[in-house]
Amino acid sequence: MRATYLHGEGDIRLTDTPQPEIEHPTDAIVRVTAACVCGSDLWGYRGARGGEARRIGHEFVGVVEEVGAEVRTLRAGDFVIAPFVVSDGTCGPCRDGVQTSCVNGGAWGSTSRAGERLDGAQAQWVRAPFADGTLVATPVTPADSLVPALLSLSDVMGTGHHAAVSAGVSPGDTAVVVGDGAVGLCAVLAATRLGAERVIAMSRHADRQRLATRFGATDIVATRGDEGVAEVAELLGGRGADAVLECVGTKESMRQALDSVRPGGRVGYVGVPAGGPELPIGQMFSNNIAVAGGVAPVRHYLDALLADVLDGKLDPGPVFDSEYPLERVADAYRDMSDRKVIKPLLKP
């Protein structure tokens, strides 16, 4: 079979590799029907991470082809969504709804906390450890038109939702979203879903501004820094937002978030830390600003979001604005890195 490997900066290759087999009785083998490239995948692609060549990708949906003897909730033929982190479903963090901290788990394409190498998901087949705790089956095989929305639930929609939940977005709130990548756009959708009355998307790109508006943004702010803060305040009658959703992960984006929230307001952060984001405790203390967030436990949110997608109440699918066959995975990385596309969907 074929799988995607990152060999170094700018070096993505599709490589022949052995097809996975059941190794543990809790495993399942999944035939991948759709995967995608994540913004965090670009870190290594841009040279931020060194090391040996590694199989890459952590978002996928597919069809179960085989299950181990101890798998109880899945069977061959099930269509499944794979959250971006493997979780056993039984440890303390999993029971608490923080599956991203599973004591035995880890992200696809990495080494688990238990020391097991996990398959990268930009491939034709994937071995899924702890299948019962990790994979979520849909009630029926979905139509092809639903696949992009379902794929978004493996990461970006759940992550945007975590930003909104962490910021305590409630009906009638005003919300600002810092970041216009796939997660930021899904955060706009999440804030709208949770009842925010006004949602301001901070975006400099016309295509992303259009999608943010489609997802429920009432206003667009293209400026940054003090000018952006002033524009947000002007839109909100001289005060900051009730909730700010930080979806980038840099020092500048966190500063933008903290400066855009009102006294007594809340910041939910999900941007993967890059570039040294810091928390100014003095500012937070003086203004009673609450900050919460982190790695999104998308498995915890998946059942509720899936129900809304299947009921037609939620459609994050348009965040995928391009589709590539797996043979063109290197093109998908290049185009996303060059900001020609928002989020590429890969078809094995």
What's the helix and strand layout?
Blueprint: E1 2-8, E2 11-16, E3 28-36, H1 41-45, E4 54-55, E5 60-67, E6 79-82, E7 85-86, H2 92-95, E8 106-107, E9 125-128, H3 131-134, E10 136-137, H4 147-152, H5 156-166, E11 174-178, H6 182-193, E12 198-202, H7 206-214, E13 219-221, H8 225-235, E14 241-246, H9 251-260, E15 261-269, H10 281-287, E16 290-293, H11 298-310, E17 322-325, H12 329-337, E18 344-347
Parallel strand pairs: 11-12, 11-14, 12-13, 14-15, 15-16, 17-18
Antiparallel strand pairs: 1-2, 1-4, 3-5, 3-9, 3-18, 5-6, 6-10, 7-8
Helix pairs in contact: 5-6, 5-11, 8-9
Overview in brief:
The protein is of the alpha/beta class and 348 residues long. Helices cover 29% and strands 25% of the residues. It has helices spanning 41-45, 92-95, 131-134, 147-152, 156-166, 182-193, 206-214, 225-235, 251-260, 281-287, 298-310, 329-337; strands spanning 2-8, 11-16, 28-36, 54-55, 60-67, 79-82, 85-86, 106-107, 125-128, 136-137, 174-178, 198-202, 219-221, 241-246, 261-269, 290-293, 322-325, 344-347.
Structure description:
The termini are close together. The chain has two domains: 2-155 and 297-347, Medium-chain alcohol dehydrogenases, catalytic domain (Quinone Oxidoreductase, Chain A, domain 1, Alpha-Beta Complex); 156-293, Rossmann fold, CATH 3.40.50. Helix content is 29%, strand content 25%. With 348 residues, the chain is of the alpha/beta class. α5 crosses α6, α5 crosses α11 and α8 runs parallel beside α9 (251-260). Strands 3, 5, 6, 9, 10, 17 and 18 form a seven-stranded mixed β-sheet that branches. Strands 13-12-11-14-15-16 form a six-stranded parallel β-sheet, with helices on both faces. It has twelve helices and 18 strands.
